[in-house]
Amino acid sequence: DFDIVALGEPLVELNQTQQDQRQYLQGFGGDTSNAVIAAARQGARCAYLTRVGNDAFGRQFLDLWQAEGVDTSGVQVDEQAHTGLYFVQHGPDGHAFSYLRRGSAASLMTPASLDSGLIERARYLHVSGISLAISTSACDTVFAAIERARAAGVQVSLDSNLRLRLWPVDRARAVLRETMRLADLFLPSMDDMQHLTGNDDPERTLDWIRDAGAAGVVVLKLGKDGSIIDDGRRRVAVPALRVDAVDATGAGDCFAGSLLARRCQGDSWEDAVRYANAAAALSTLGYGAVDPLPRKEQVLERLQGTAG
Ligand code: KDG
User: Fold this and answer.
1) CB under 6 Å to ligand 1: residues?
2) Does the pLDDT value for residue 308 go beyond 60?
3) What is the rounded distance in angstroms from the CA atom of residue 249 to the CA atom of residue 173?
4) What spacing in Å lies between the alpha carbon of 228 and ligand 1's midpoint?
5) Nearest residue CA, atom 9 of ligand 1?
6) Counting beta carbons within 10 angstroms of the beta carbon of residue 304, is it exposed (0 to 12), middle (13 to 18) or buried (19 or more)?
7) Of all atoms in ligand 1, which is nearest to the CA of residue 13?
8) pLDDT, tens digit, for every residue of 25-37?
């Protein structure tokens, strides 16, 4: 059985190097894949549901998940479509993504892609705004997965991960609002919510989320200002760990995976969020989404260092 089964699209990553703006380092990304790898590195038992191309990149991903201990029995291989790809470019305002993913294997997922029966064996199903945005059949697949999870008593976790290159803001708002109502755990970032609601105040944002019908636990991510937990009764702010970030790609995914892993290991919400804040901060110390994801020992060491 699994702690976490995630559903979404892996993307091969080409990350611009510091030395030469025309040189790119190949790595791995894709928000839900990042999250599940982060969770596995914290000791969680994980599986990933997706579709990759029958190409070198698809095979690299299968090798990566297997090396990280992520179960791949729910990964389908598409004979025609390719594995998706994205570029990370760095500028004075941080990082920016561009995508080569239209028509990718993962975007061709359909509800029948869920037939492996993995969801029913998990404690959490983890999905995101990106899983919902990549195509209408992927969106249907996410809703079907949520339905199966709820029917089996599996908790649903949703990361907002708003990417406006993938869908118009009005559709994103409508679909995410519908999905957050079905989630036991909603993980929005303040940046995403600002795009969806037009307001930049955390308290008002949490009010908006509650008014929209979110009934589960909400953890609002404020980047370097930490996170706020709203469990429906009270709100608790948890500060971030201060670090000199070089590349924040995947930090939110690391937060999600680490938080779920620690909940499965019995942490309170506050302890799990403190841990996830630290893991996310550590993940920004290197380039790329996956390589710098910290392991449990590193996070614990850092947390003990700050506590003492
Ligand atoms: O959160 C980081 C992801 O955004 C990155 O790995 C690429 O999945 C990706 C996407 O769709 O933006």
Assistant:
1) 11, 29-31, 34, 86, 97, 130, 163, 249-250, 252-253, 289
2) no
3) 23
4) 23
5) 30
6) exposed
7) 6
8) 999 999 999 999 9
What residues are labeled active site? 253
- Does 221 or 21 have the greater pLDDT score? 221
CA gyration radius, the chain: 18
In angstroms, what is the span from residue 190 Cα to ligand 1's centroid?
A: 17
257 CA → ligand 1 middle, Å: 14
Q: What are phi and psi of 285, to 5 degrees?
A: -85, -10
pLDDT tens digits, one per residue of 188-245: 999 999 999 999 999 999 999 999 999 999 999 999 899 999 999 999 999 999 999 9
For ligand 1, atom 10: residue with the closest CA: 30
Q: What is the ipTM of this complex?
A: 0.97
Which run of H or of E encompasses 307?
Answer: helix 296-307
